[in-house]
Amino acid sequence: MTQATSQPMKIAGMTPRAVVVALVVLAVAAALPLVLTNYQVGLATEMLIFGVLAMSIDILAGFAGRTSLGHGAIFGVSGYVVVYATAQAGLPPLPAFALGVIAATLVAAIFALLAVRTSGVYFLLLTLALGMIVWGICLRWTQVTGGENGMRGDVRPPWLVTHQAFYWAVLAGAAVVSYAMWRFVRSPFGLTLLGIRDSESRMRSLGYNVPLHLFIGFTVSGFFAGIAGALYAMFNNFVSPSTVALAQSVEGVLMMIAGGVGSLFGGFVGAAAIIALENAVSAYTERWQMVLGVTFILIMIFAPEGIIGTLRAVLTRKQR
To answer: Which CATH architecture has domain 36-319?
Structure first.
């Protein structure tokens, strides 16, 4: 009996306690539209989408030691393809969604080919430059992208028009994608990325092809960022050069840092904290960006491990 009941947990790769916590979190999240206004449901949907983006960045930063400033461009490319495929090519939403994710994965593969042999600040600056190239193309290629005016289209399927229905669809998608990312970083390949982060020279001496592993890790990370971008296109029904701008990448990185680098699920916590803070502070002052800057400084000084990392440290001290 014990063996039969524990086997599903082994297959899922999660302890019984983790399964219970995940189910409780999902149940609470699923019940939110029943008590929130449409505006608040929209904010919650945005938090889920940007949480997925922050997690995709954390695959590289937290587990491979490579912080990317190009994921905002990958995220935005997916959105552009989704809107263009539905508004201009007349494709149904689901095939357009798939095309957006494929396009983002291809862009991530190109970025990876150019960036994986660098590290540190060079990797950061190279991904920044690649992202700026994508931004310039989206800004100047007006016949396809609409330039500064962007593109608008009815991207959502008819059954996802309401705020509540779309939120539940995004929640389901975010849950599946989060589990896939968690399994990826806990797989033998993910452990190899951790080894590269800790000592790249040691992994080379052990016979690992470091550039190939980083290329695959970057591409997989871009695949998940593409899913977030496609969801964001459906959320907004609109894309513009700001969707692929540097600010998008920076915001994703800050969400990851606020939640906790290397915690993975901290991306959702960081996204929720930053989006909630942005909307709360901007309602009272036009200088909300300064307040956000001060908040990030305080986090870096007093909680350098992020919200999740700090909570873990506090719980560990209490247990001891």
So the answer is: Orthogonal Bundle (1.10)
